[in-house]
Amino acid sequence: MAQGMEIRNLSAWYGSQQVLKEINLPVSPNQVTAIIGPSGCGKSTFVRTLNRLHEIIPGARVSGQVFLGEVDLYAPGVDPVSIRRRIGMVFQKPNPFPTMSIFENAAAGLRLNGVDKRRLAEQVEKSLKLAALWDEVSNRLGQSGAALSGGQQQRLCLARALAVSPEILLMDEPASALDPAATLKIEDLIRELKKEYTIIVVTHNMQQAARVADQTAFFLNGELVEYGPSSEIFTRPKDRRTEDYITGRFG
Amino acid sequence: MTIRPNLIRPQSSHQWQDQSFRLLTLVFALAMLGLVGLMVLELLQGSWLSLLRFGWSFLTDADWDPVFENFGALPFLYGTLISSLLALSIALPVSLGIALFLTEIAPQWLYRPISFVVELLAAIPSVVYGLWGLFVLAPWVRTHLQPVLSRFFGYLPFFQGPALGVGMLSAGLILAVMITPIVTAISREVIMAVPTSQREAALALGATRWEMIRLAILPYARSGLLGAVLLGLGRALGETMAVTMVIGNRPEIAISLFAPGYSMASVIANEFSEATYALYLSALMEIGLLLFGVTMLLNFLARLMLWRLTGAVAGTRE
Asked: ipTM for the complex?
């Protein structure tokens, strides 16, 4: 059973501009939670606060609490580096390390943790299988990760994140740079992976959210407008703004 | 499959603009090739006498004796290479350190003044460096650095002999100071060009700052960093004035870095006006040719190294 998350009164700023306003959101373990909303609503910033990646930008600031199990990630004395080892992330644009081989890409996080050689190969194979990439690359693990197709690169990044066995998986529009076939593959993976992980996926594609997410949260102008089971959000939204958005009246 | 742009060139009435622009830039580019060609030709012609007289032994003969009309370039070759490599091995870690500090660690208010000062260093004329080297650096090396080195590392052949101040060590140090700005400035640009997505990929895996540098930045930037090293090395190889003032100007090969040496550029500068007969002048010209060749060769080797480095995991895309 994976860990869940609990976000309380979370606000975030870039300089003096507030981009997240008092977000409260529970994230259930072993479920897929989708974050939807128009461009600039703060959904990307939101996931970046969950692994403390937001704060690497100069002038960026956060207040509030994010609980991973019992631990508040923003409590004083918490090391962001150790947090990020427990929370994996896949980005919008596939970003494998271009000078490394496929194997080394998948092993990058393991090497940071000092995993011994024998377990390394085992773990790399396991994570490449989890990311449904093994069959396509098992005979050319020594080749550059940059030589793969976009969809394969994204799955390689997924394998890289999964290799260190994180508790949470954050995905920031993981399929927006991919073609439809590669997108479907990623969506299948998301559904498969929730058995072992808690997944938070940002998407601007509402069909995608409806297809993969158990819970959906709708963000607008830095506020969490509505949150609930996807089936309800997409069929019987309670808030007028949610309804406008999902029926395509804006965004 | 990529479409070659010249196959889809539009048939517009303004085509002549493109045409003439192409022609103009082509002429400029070819002029560079022509210039290099002429230079080689001129050097070959000038050093013809010496080439005929000494052949390959010019490169292996350690004796440079204008009185007896015997010229061997080995001490100068040795002096140039050793002083430049010494400079590079000091300047590279320092420059990389400054560049990484500026791009990854320094706050805005520190970034600007340090970048400015580093770039200012590059604008100081080399004769000023030379004077400073002669009057400040060399005496300091004699009274402070050399005694320490010979006490703690005196068992190594590199740090033996009398402490003179002027010599290979001082030349290496002054060259290191001189090439640090350019290596730093280019390294900084190259490191800044590493995409944010690469840094974030490493950080999101739980990399510390140092691990991020090792995992994402240095590998991504390596070809650019090699370019920085090459430019620094090029400057060190050809630097004349400052080296001449501190290297000691004695055409001898000594293992010890304390001993005086001589460099190719220095001997040309020092002895060109004294070259009273044709063979002497020709031998100096051949040293010029040699310096040119060494610079070319090092560039080529570095490129080869880079090519093998990136070729090992080369992508087929793009």
From this structure: 0.91
